[in-house]
């Protein structure tokens, strides 16, 4: 899919184009959403997913990560991301990006960053 940038797309247009409505699971269908341990080491799949995100590079700047950020802030209702704590709503982030994003929606954070 190609998003034509003849004019600035609206938030709704970007969400409709790129955001999936199914919450799915990155660790297999057996992961479930109960949070109970399903792994042999006793760790829940969600916690294992968060640990993996912390080891990856920052989704916003590419620096070494270390924290997990909610793309759509927990303080706002998630729109099409499967809920505030869904795996679709979390990404690895470095401390400075996570702190500067605060509770801003993703597009607003990116707009402000582009102005700097």
TrEMBL record:
<dbReference type="Pfam" id="PF01844">
    <property type="entry name" value="HNH"/>
</dbReference>
<protein>
    <submittedName>
        <fullName>HNH endonuclease</fullName>
    </submittedName>
</protein>
<dbReference type="GO" id="GO:0008270">
    <property type="term" value="F:zinc ion binding"/>
</dbReference>
<dbReference type="InterPro" id="IPR002711">
    <property type="entry name" value="HNH"/>
</dbReference>
<dbReference type="GO" id="GO:0003676">
    <property type="term" value="F:nucleic acid binding"/>
</dbReference>
<keyword id="KW-0378">Hydrolase</keyword>
<dbReference type="InterPro" id="IPR003615">
    <property type="entry name" value="HNH_nuc"/>
</dbReference>
<feature type="domain" description="HNH nuclease">
    <location>
        <begin position="47"/>
        <end position="99"/>
    </location>
</feature>
<keyword id="KW-0540">Nuclease</keyword>
<keyword id="KW-0255">Endonuclease</keyword>
<dbReference type="GO" id="GO:0004519">
    <property type="term" value="F:endonuclease activity"/>
</dbReference>
